[in-house]
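Discussion board: Methods & Data

I've been asked by a reviewer to show the raw model output for two of the constructs in my manuscript, not just the figures. I'm not sure how much to include, so I'm pasting the format here to get opinions. Each protein appears as its amino acid sequence followed by a line of discrete structure tokens. Is this the kind of thing reviewers expect to see in a supplement, or should I convert it first? Here is construct A:
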Amino acid sequence: SSDLVPAVSSRTPSLLRVMATKWGVCSAGKISHDFMVALATLPAQDHQAVAVAARDLGRAQEFAKTHSIPKAYGSYEDLARDPDIDPLYSKYPKFHTTLCLENILSAISNM
């Protein structure tokens, strides 16, 4: 029927529109770099990297500077506790995946 109106249209107030997905990046290696390059091709109003963590804070800070990420952490627990993050991106070699997930789950369970 012509009475049907889409739920979201160009006239929908901006408060009703979906906010950007705020990504946390768990690792500062090459594959995470590739993820950031791909993320940069998406509209910033839809996807933003807001934090990165690495086992070495200096590496996390360097990665953050390279990719214009506002926060860098030297532990995965701190990244997991960041309230500004929606999903976490983690691309570790298999032997590190368990360590990263254990640290994140530990941080979440202690919140």
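Construct B, same format:
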Amino acid sequence: MATDSSAPEIQLSGDSGLKKQILREGQGERRPTTGSEVVVHYVGRLLDGTVFDSSRDRNDYFTFNLGTGSVIKGWDEGIKTMRKGELALLTCGPDYAYGKRGSPPKIPPNATLQFEVELFSWSSLKDISERKDKGIMKAEVKQGEGHETPKDEARCVINLVGKVLPADASEEDEEADGEVFERRENYEVVIGEGQLTRSLEKCLENMRQGEHATFILAPRYAYGAAGDASLKVPPNARLRYDVELVSMVSPQEPWDLDANGKIDAAEKRKNEGNELFKQGKHDRAIAKYRRGTSFIDADHSFQQGDELTRAHALKATLYLNIAACEVSRKSWDDVIENCNQALKLGANNFKALLRRGKAYNERNEWDLAKQDLKQALELDPASADAKRELAAVNKKIADHDKKDRQAYSGMFERMSKMEQKETKPTPAPSAAGESSDK
């Protein structure tokens, strides 16, 4: 594609300190965002045409993270306006380059610099999965407005296109395309109502109004090993969703309610979460329980006495219910965290001690497990669950000790044999060939 040196200058700053001239148009509409790892070639010149630096002369691409201050301000601000394949001339005044000091010996003080920059590629993918296992990756295509993001019960209008990615597509390729299996326009959804998968709701919860974004979902966050024949999604398929959050209406907030209203709202979410738990929808149940805690999180909202006691009891129940969901998901760290929250509200909580003890057992932290389970049995000596879990802990300890004894026994046996071998008498030298005195 030919370059256009007569293209008009575009002002990128309000003080005329940063200008851009597009020498060759890029492709598509996507642009890199803050934090993106970008790959460029560049040639840097003084205004008299003197070249002071060039990645092309070194025949080596330059890679850096955009918007993190690792390059001059003119680059951070200018390159985020470029599209893939674009060739542009950035004119950077001193405040957008090396300022009053310059960068001796090649760049004098107060120098205005020009950079011919070609943007080859970038990666904007960010891990938004709760477990940080790269199961849900996000790339922002167009920034949204403000700072508010949807939460449970928010009403949203979205545009969405879902695609099945090829099996050989790279996990790091945010531009990988595939076959469309789902398309929705101006679709009205309520977060938490089950109109979307929980993973897609998680995607929306990380967007702002007006934002466009691409999400890459690993099979475990999509339709898993079974796939979905009705949508023509094969087993173990990675999915790409292109989503626009057109608008959103936030749900009722805690500060809109009096103390009794807050408790009622939390109770309502607890009951809704319980129904979802019974249906095995643990992710959605957790979202409801967490939403419930948000209404009664601030102690200062309640008067000392009955109000605060009710709020604490309900909050403890919500944390315990989250822990029960996490037990089902075998997320032992999260089980412990939520039991800790419940125990802060009351140290003698039998269910919190039992569930935390089980989690410690699963993490092979047996001393902590025994401590919790013994305390639980002091509270309820007849509990079959606590007895069974404590027996399981003791068996693990016994098995571990037996294994250690066997290992040490074998080690000592080998050492003993080695010592015997080292102390065995050395045979006397042979007398063959020696002369006799007789």
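Answer (T.O., handling editor elsewhere):
This is acceptable in a supplement if you add a one-line summary per construct. For B, something like: Residues 429-438 have pLDDT under 50 and may be disordered.
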